[in-house]
Amino acid sequence: MAPSTHQPLPTSVSDEKYANVKWEELAFGFVRTDNMYVAKCNHGEDFQEGKIVPFADLQLNPCAAVLQYGQGLYEGLKAYRTEDGRIMLFRPDQNGHRLQAGAKRLYMPYPSVDQFVSAIKQVVLANKKWIPPPGKGTLYIRPILFGSGPILGSFPIPETTFMAFACPVGRYHKDNSGLNLKIEDKFRRAFPSGTGGVKSITNYSPVWIPMAEAKRQGFSDLLFLDAETGKNVEELFAANVFILKGNVVSTPALTGTILPGVTRNCVMELCRDFGYQVEERVLPLEEFLESDEAFCTGTASIVTSIASVTFKDKKTGFKTGEETLAAKLFEMLSDIQTGRVEDTKGWTVEIDRQG
Questions:
Q1: What residue numbers bound the domain in which 255 lies?
Q2: Annotated catalytic, 22?
């Protein structure tokens, strides 16, 4: 996809194209925007086209499946405003496929990938003024699929809701010097035959206790070990992990306990393009600690260096800085996502040529 010849958009916060936001102070957190997308599906039927409605609180039956049994999934992806005025999505079809895989795991109906991508485009355009100026952030889109109908002890779920909202966000990890991780050796994020390989809403709050403790101790995030042996690295709270040793890039294999990240897949492909050997395999903690470089990937994290990890009070450091593979990957991926270089991969989707 060649760069557009459209004139650059003004980046002043006073410009009428933008919401009244202090873009320089933008963090990664909830910001109420104008509109959201909602579609519903009754038992035994397919999802029909939803609609854009004003952003508002939901009316939900207290006996809804999502409240009683945790039947819910979410996704996360971003919209980018380019220097020449385009609005871009990054591989939204992959999020649609992952939502479908999660829905199958949680016994839920789901929208088609085309419906999913259409919903994302609609919610982005309906909140267009909330897309930050180039270089100031992104519009984070949060699709949700959940059992909204009441159920008490028996099937079927009478109603399922698919919706999406969006809010402007800044960098998830603001510390460019690299993350300072704690290796969690008591709590486990995921278990074999569980839901660690899908974005179930039940995956996250069970590890808030160790996460809160790690934050109090000054750590950036947690790195979790496998549930079976407690000897192998799996992933962070909400990001995949990679190591570099020599010319070999390694990441834990997808065995059902690790989320198949969209960014993870892109990073593996880019690493091969850069001439590295890429391996997906069991990654022992001992080997992780002996690596030259470590980094994490995700929609929120993009590509972020890991400066150090601490395991049982022993701290191990890794290479960071502008000369790292992580920095090279971050630059390349960000340039593709924001239209600064030609997208030869077909990863980006332009949704508005008018700026």
A1: 179-338
A2: no
